[in-house]
């Protein structure tokens, strides 16, 4: 028993030291570069003031509209008799499978000066600037808000509503007195998460912002273009603030209302008007999601839009000649490595924090979720400054490391919550039988958490394939992931090649998501067969 405890303490110490080196120390290194910049001069400059103001206004507008759309779509899935709910739920999350910069490019293809819809309907307005960033940010962020809200609505108990119906309380009063108190805290978390996602993104504003600069774009240009690490560190500090506030709110105000038992599933009555509206909203949203993807497909296979619309494979060949295939292989290597390493570390860390007690477990848990409060651009810059001159700098290994840390928190929390649902006495039983914790972890916990492990793998892979923020400052000509080619091709007026790269990333992520789905279905069928076999043998 004492030997097992010593092993647990040793494992916690190693993991804690690892996080100290890859999270805390890089951030401290970045902040030390603030001494090299005139903070007052930067903050008081018109460029910084405009970028800060633009970031706040754009992010607030996009957050309100994105959360409203997400709630409406979640309501359509959870509170109506909408047909093909499963298909619509998958379709609503498709924008999560391509880089944010692709959403901006998609809007240019559709609504730019020579955009497909602009020419088709003879539209006379500019998509560049404020509204372009807002629309692109909504496309990029609403799927995350949708999944969070849908999870809340799915676990709402119907009993209070049933009692309200018996008492003759109106629908409006039910919404204000039952629904609003139930979703208040989760919705605040959704708002914080969405705002953080939008305010720290530079892909959409870089592509479609035009002269309407934002803080992330300013940081990107100062670091990449001017190598001004001091100014970049100062902007990074400002970008840390909203993410840190969201992290602190979630940590200290964890919602308990949705964690209780659902005594009765939500009862959906027949209502043709409501279901018709839900169907219309869902179809319209799906069309808006598919338009950029369709535009990518059109541009990939035409010679030169809109001058020559002849079908061709030249854009694919040209992209491959410019090493798109090599960079795509880089992305696959990075994504697979991040998924394997990330799942391993996240799973082990979750076991150490969820299946043991004491201050050390609590402290390790807090450190494990701190990456939620660090924007990708900030983490990437901190890695540049901390690992400069080391053997990791300029290699694929550093891209694997930064992505593993950047996306660590969510898979970790998946595993942490799954461990918490398993019987807390399993280790004690194993100790009594002389079974080590390592053997229990391998033969008991892993089989029971196969679906969770698959979801963790999928999350790491998809995000590592499409991210541009954490790797922008760290990539070189040799180790660059394919997503960064989108900006390069667009800058060279090769928008057809950019469209092909976006489709390539989408295809890879769809394949991995489909594979994970099939594996989960196979696991479910196996579990059903085992349960059926057990029942037959018992009888």
Topology at a glance:
Layout: H1 2-32, H2 39-44, H3 46-79, H4 85-92, H5 100-111, H6 116-121, H7 130-154, H8 159-166, H9 171-199, H10 203-208, H11 215-225, H12 229-252, H13 272-300, E1 302-304, E2 308-311, H14 314-321, H15 324-354, H16 359-368, H17 376-387, H18 396-406, H19 409-421, H20 426-432, H21 437-448, H22 450-466, H23 485-491, H24 495-538
Antiparallel strand pairs: 1-2
Helix pairs in contact: 1-15, 1-16, 1-17, 3-7, 3-9, 3-13, 5-7, 5-13, 5-24, 7-9, 9-12, 11-12, 12-17, 13-24, 14-24, 15-16, 15-18, 15-19, 15-22, 19-22, 22-24, 23-24
Task: Name the descriptors.
single chain; mainly alpha; 74% helix; 1% strand
Number of strands: 2
Rg calculated over all Cα atoms = 25 Å
How would you characterize the largest beta sheet? 2 strands, antiparallel
Strand order of the largest sheet: 1-2
What general outline do the C-alpha atoms trace?
globular
Please name the CATH architecture: Orthogonal Bundle
CATH homologous superfamily grouping: MetI-like
Low-confidence stretches: 255-260
Please report the first level of CATH classification, the CATH class: Mainly Alpha
From the N-terminal CA to the C-terminal CA, the straight-line distance is 39 Å
Q: Provide the domain count.
A: 1
User: What would you call the structural class?
Assistant: mainly alpha
Number of helices: 24
Question: SSE order in H/E notation?
Answer: HHHHHHHHHHHHHEEHHHHHHHHHHH
Question: How would you describe this protein?
Answer:
With 539 residues, this protein is mainly α. It has a single domain (2-28, 56-303, 315-538), classed as MetI-like fold, CATH 1.10.3720.10. It contains 24 helices and two strands. The chain has helices spanning 2-32, 39-44, 46-79, 85-92, 100-111, 116-121, 130-154, 159-166, 171-199, 203-208, 215-225, 229-252, 272-300, 314-321, 324-354, 359-368, 376-387, 396-406, 409-421, 426-432, 437-448, 450-466, 485-491, 495-538, and strands at 302-304, 308-311. It has a two-stranded antiparallel sheet. Helix 19 (409-421) packs antiparallel against helix 22 (450-466) and helix 23 packs antiparallel against helix 24. The longest helix is centred in the last third of the chain and has 44 residues, at 495-538. Residues 255-260 have low confidence and may be disordered.
């Amino acid at each position: 028993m004492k030997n097992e405890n010593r092993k647990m303490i040793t494992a916690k110490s190693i993991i804690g030291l690892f996080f100290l080196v890859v999270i805390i120390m890089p951030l401290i290194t970045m902040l030390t570069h603030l001494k090299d910049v005139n903070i007052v001069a930067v903050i008081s400059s018109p460029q910084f003031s405009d970028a800060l103001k633009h970031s706040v206004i754009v992010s607030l507008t996009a957050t309100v509209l994105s959360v409203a759309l997400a709630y409406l779509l979640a309501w359509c899935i959870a509170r109506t008799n909408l047909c093909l709910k499963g298909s619509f739920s998958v379709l609503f999350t498709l924008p999560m499978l391509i880089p944010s910069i692709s959403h901006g490019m998609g809007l240019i293809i559709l609504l730019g000066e020579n955009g497909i819809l602009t020419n088709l309907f003879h539209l006379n307005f500019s998509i560049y600037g404020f509204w372009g960033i807002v629309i692109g940010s909504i496309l990029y962020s609403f799927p995350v808000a949708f999944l969070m809200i849908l999870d809340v609505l799915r676990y709402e108990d119907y009993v209070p509503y049933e009692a309200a119906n018996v008492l003759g309380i109106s629908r409006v009063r039910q919404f204000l007195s039952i629904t609003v108190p139930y979703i208040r805290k989760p919705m605040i978390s959704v708002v914080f998460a969405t705002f953080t996602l939008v305010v720290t993104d530079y892909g959409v504003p870089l592509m479609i912002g035009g002269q309407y600069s934002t803080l992330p774009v300013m940081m990107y240009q100062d670091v990449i273009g001017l190598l001004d690490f001091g100014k970049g560190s100062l902007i990074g500090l400002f970008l840390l603030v909203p993410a840190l506030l969201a992290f602190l709110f979630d940590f200290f105000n964890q919602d308990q209302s949705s964690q209780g038992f659902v005594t009765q599933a939500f009862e959906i009555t027949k209502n043709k008007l409501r279901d018709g509206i839900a169907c219309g909203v869902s179809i319209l949203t799906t069309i808006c999601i598919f338009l950029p993807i369709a535009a990518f497909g059109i541009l990939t296979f035409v010679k030169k839009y809109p001058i020559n619309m002849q079908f061709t494979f030249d854009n694919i060949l040209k992209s491959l000649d410019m090493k798109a295939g090599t960079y795509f292989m880089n992305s696959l290597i990075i994504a697979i490595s991040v998924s394997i390493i990330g799942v391993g570390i996240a799973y082990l860390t979750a076991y150490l924090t969820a299946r043991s007690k004491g201050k050390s477990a609590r402290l390790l848990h807090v450190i494990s979720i701190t990456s939620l409060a660090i924007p990708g651009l900030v983490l990437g810059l901190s890695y540049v400054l901390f690992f400069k001159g080391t053997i990791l700098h300029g290699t694929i290994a550093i891209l694997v490391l930064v992505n593993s840390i950047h996306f660590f928190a969510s898979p970790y929390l998946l595993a942490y919550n799954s461990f918490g649902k398993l019987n807390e006495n399993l280790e004690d039983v194993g100790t009594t039988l002389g079974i080590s914790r390592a053997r229990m972890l391998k033969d008991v916990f892993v089989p029971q958490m196969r679906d969770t492990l698959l979801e963790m793998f999928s999350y790491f892979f998809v995000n590592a394939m499409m991210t541009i923020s954490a790797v922008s400052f760290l990539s070189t000509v040799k180790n660059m992931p394919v997503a960064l080619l989108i900006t390069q091709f667009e800058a060279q007026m090769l928008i057809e090649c950019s469209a092909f790269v976006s489709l390539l990333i989408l295809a890879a992520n769809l394949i991995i998501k489909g594979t994970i789905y099939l594996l989960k279905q196979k696991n479910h069928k196996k579990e059903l067969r085992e349960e059926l076999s057990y029942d037959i043998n018992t009888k």
